[in-house]
Amino acid sequence: MNTPAEYAIVTGAGSGIGRAVAIELSQEPLTTLAIGRRLDALKETAAQAPGEVQALGADVATEAGRAAILARLGAKARVRYVVHGAGILPIERLSEITLASWRAAMATNVEARLFLTRALVPYLRGGGRVLFIGSMSATRARKGSTAYCTALAASFMLQRCLQLELAEDEIKVTSAVPGPVKTVMIENSLAADADVFPDSAEYAVLRDQGKLVEPKRVGAFYRWLLTRVDDKAYGASQWDIRDESHHHAWLGTQGLYDKR
């Protein structure tokens, strides 16, 4: 009898945190399915990974994109880990928010996480783990990012509800805040008009102080969380990369902001 193929699924894997997580998880004895809208970027992720990474161009904010993921898995696959890394951060004044931009933020940051997780329940049942990339913006209002803050607050509550809904399927769900990370999203925030997005000044201070976390650090943290933490601790609360109580377990003697 053939053993079902085992997968880790990482969305938003073409850059930033998603890419770093896909590369880290490729070191586990499974196939990492790197999902994103830009196939060329996903192929770069696969080329950098030490283990097996398969690139799949798909927009998880659409039904067609989610269907493509299921089609790639087939009927007999097993999914051990799902990382919801896809996200968009529109920076705009309240007067500039359109129905289209609002719906795009919700579709990627909330709806994709709900409907993809639900579709993957048969593959995850009996021990799979789901990880939401969290954000301080879920609980902190920011001028100029109303749609993003609202979406991330909804995403946090979605994660909490899925914890309850999926417990009977033995699927563990949690979220983890990566801290301000050196990604394109932060670069766009830094470049934003301070009158529209005043928090750009705060990010600039963190950048100048060397306190933007490198994506590879987040990748290592998420791999440890997904693959090494016991079930009870995994879902006990939202995790935060800046919480020093767990640094010894995955950072060792390195510092959180080291570039090595």
Brief overview, please?
The chain is 45% helix and 14% strand. It is built from ten helices and seven strands.
- The largest sheet has its strands arranged as 3-2-1-4-5-6-7
> How far apart are the first and last residues' alpha carbons, in Å?
44 Å
What is the approximate shape? globular
Mean of residue pLDDT values = 96
Give the fraction of residues assigned to helices. Answer: 40-55%
So how many helices?
A: 10
What does this structure look like?
The chain is built from 10 helices and 7 strands. The model has no long low-confidence stretch (mean pLDDT 96). It has 260 residues and is of the alpha/beta class. The chain has a 7-stranded parallel β-sheet with strand order 3-2-1-4-5-6-7, with helices on both faces. Helix 6 (184-191) crosses helix 7 (200-208). Helix content is 45%, strand content 14%.
